Amino acid sequence: MILVKFKKFISFIIFLIFSIILLQNISHAEWITKKSDKSKELIKVDGMYANGYLTKSECTIMKAKLLKITSATGMCDDVVVKKKLITKKEPKKKKKIKVKTDSGEVGNWVAVIEHKEKKLIYTSDNLPEINTKQKAINNATSKCWFDWRHKEGDWPSENCQIISVKNTDKKSTFITKKTKKDKKKEKELIKKLITKKKKDLKEKKIDNKHYASIRNLPLGDFYFIAFGNDDLKIIGYVNPDPKSKKIKIGNRKIVKTNIGKAYLNDKKTICDVISEVDDAANSSIFNGKAIINCNNKNKFFGSWFQQGGKGEGIGVNNKGNKLNFYFVKNKSAAERLKNPNLEYAKKIPEENEPTFTPKKSIVNKAPIIKVELSKKIKKGSYKITGKVTDDQKTPPYLYIDDELIKVSKDGSFEFPGFTNRNTQITVLAVDKRGLQNEVVVKVIVEKEIVTITKLEKLKPQKINSKKNNNKLAVIIGIQKYDSFLNARYADNDGEYFSEYAKKAFGIKSTNIKTLIDGEANNNSSKIALFRWLKQKVIPGETEVIIFYSGHGMASLDNGEIFLLSSDSDEGIIEDTALSRRDTFKRIESFNAKSVTVFIDACYNGETGDSGNEELLIASAKPLIGVKDTGDIPNSFNVFSSSQLNQASFSTEKETGVENGIFSYYLMKGLEGNADLNSDRKITNGEMQKYLSMKIPKIALSLHNREQDPFFKGNKNLILTSF
Predict the structure, then answer these.
(1) Checking phi first, is residue 468 left (phi over 0); if not, alpha (psi -120 to 50) or beta?
(2) Which of 67, 177, 454, 659 shows a CA-CA span of 20 to 30 A to 264?
(3) CA pair distance 398, 316, nearest whole angstrom
(4) Which helix (H) or strand (E) element contains residue 340?
């Protein structure tokens, strides 16, 4: 009985130890599961090679490009190949035997793959060994995945999609079945070519000289080179057609039609070329159709894509043979254009590569990275140090956040960095055999203890100004918006200012219209500002005070300024928000004795909330360098919380007050703090000077950002007296 209990106790202890180890591993998992982009791409290359999409030489070339080293020989030797491209050298066949099933049918297969995002076309090579449908797909897919024009890491397989796969032994290609639209376009281009040729004959402008190299071609706006079946090569150029229409794309006008000449590599055939723009994605990406009509009755028709000063396309001739063409604006760049298919055709076939058989006595181990996985730093500069070792004679390659790092002979390294927030750094080691190891270093920024000065509470009760029956106030404070982020403390600003309107300006409650949050929708705001004010204003006698705290926005097209209502809609700002220009113009027409406006809002697209770094809307952008739009009437006195290209900020809870910085100091100024000469009167000039002394300092202290208040109006006008 004791023995049984002892066995149970031992089992429990083993289980407990195992659980602790497992929990430790789980808690540590976040350090090792994150993969850098470079590591992911290396694994992807191994997968392509293992599944037969790449030869070994292609595998090593791609790894060298990824790792930015001259040679990666040996890095693909340890990859277990599931299915090779060519298992053995097949004897040449006089006639291709065709199998009835589609999947194994032998023939002259052509696969066409398109990179959906970049609109690039890739066609499989015309090689004897690519004699089945799957091999053609593999070949074209490999080109799409590993096109040198893609940026490093930009090889998403989901973008490489099959357009068509055809057996050309059946005399069909993906482009031979032209649509009605293509046939109509081809006829239009042929008609233009015939018209041009007749005119050239009449004016004796026919150039019968044959050119064998791009270097010797006449001056052109674009130069192109094309590759077809049976080693066909065509060079040529095009220039804008003087009689071409111009089409408007954005703010640009481009020529629709280009004409030129082409020359075959048979040293005798000359062709006429015409190309037309069909459509544009934006001001630098176009697509269109082109036709090459040769004097040997060979005619090619195809489609092209252009981005900036370069592009490419694919076409087919009247016999069903395809043509790939590439074009650039620069002649020297055109000379460097090569047939991308030849890069694959010239590579050493896999059956000729020696098979690597590792020695049984040697076990290749992944490199070891010795580095502190968690590092606490103060905000700013830091340094990661460590050591990387391997069973090879030389240290492995080391990458920190995908950047190649210099390693000393003994494997030690250091990496300087800079950060103001917690971050994770990936450290990747790759040895000469391609084995890799990766760890994640967590850099933790210690929180700085910042002492925030407490601000004095607002005290409207300490003010006692004379009552004035000829003053009106419209007060709007919106924190919560239906379609936008909150404007922090804006509701507090509106509610507090209602008290200051009574105490500091002596306005009767019946002459104050206050709208907070949902009450300040577009309709209610306009009724208060336009109808209520108009009914109350006595021309030449009434003084009007307007206060707004919330979000502002400037139109991206013409810079017009808007104050948002609680129900404003991003898509129709012009119809659902208050145009500052139109609002001022309407109120000016009431002919009040004076109009003073206080606006605690910014127009540069930011929330003005340090706790939320998002933009107000996704399409918003800072209005850098924007000047006064001139929408303020000369008779108005306007105080604004910031310049047009700055954000407006709120206080922090640690200060003990919850208001916009501008609103807070405006109201403290009305308590008497802005009476700089102690004459118990506050002029507009004194208030502006007081705000300019206080607001920039507190904004810099709380948010490390600039905020400079704005004023336009009569500085000598008395704002209030007490």
Answers:
(1) beta
(2) 177
(3) 48
(4) helix 340-345
Helix (H) or strand (E) holding 546: strand 543-549
Residue 346 in tokens: 């010239």
Q: Rounded distance, CA 192 to CA 257, Å?
A: 10
Q: Which residues on neighbouring strands pair with residue 99, listed in sequence order?
A: none
SS3 436: strand
Q: Which residues contact 5 (CB under 8 A, 6 or more apart)?
A: none
Distance CA 602, CA 616 (A): 11
SS3 397: strand
Q: Rounded to 5 degrees, what angle do the CA atoms 495, 496, 497 make?
A: 95
Mean pLDDT across 64-75: 82
Please report the pLDDT score of residue 83 as a whole number.
Answer: 46
Residue 715 Rama label (left phi>0; alpha psi -120 to 50; beta): alpha
One-letter amino acid at 300 equals F
- Give the Å distances, CA to CA, from 382 to 223, 376, 420, 422, 442: 51, 9, 10, 12, 12
What kind and span of H or E run contains 384? strand 380-389
Tell me the HSE value of 273 on the side-chain side, using a 13 A CA sphere. 26
Q: How far is residue 512's CA from residue 489's CA, in Å, rounded to a whole number?
A: 21
Which one-letter amino acid corresponds to residue 587?
Answer: I
Task: Scan for tokens 């010239």, then name that residue.
Answer: 346
pLDDT for 98 equals 37
Q: Each residue of 84-113: pLDDT tens digit? A: 444 344 444 434 333 333 445 667 788 888
Beta bridge partners of 404: 399
- Of 553, 547, 566, 554, the C-alpha closest to 486 is 566
**Three-state SS at 553:** strand
Query: Residue 619 has which token pair?
Result: 């399409």
Q: Which residue has the higher pLDDT, 195 or 702?
A: 702
What are the tokens at 233?
């090569």
What per-residue string of b and e applies to 127-147 under the rule 16 or more CB within 10 Å gives b? eeebbbbebbbbbbbbbbbbb
Strand partners, 113: 122, 162
- Dist. CA 553–CA 389, nearest whole Å: 57
Structural domains in the chain, CATH included, are: 37-86+102-170 (no CATH), 180-338 (2.40.128.120), 368-445 (2.60.40.10), 465-721 (3.40.50.1460)
Token pair of 710 as six digits = 């704005």
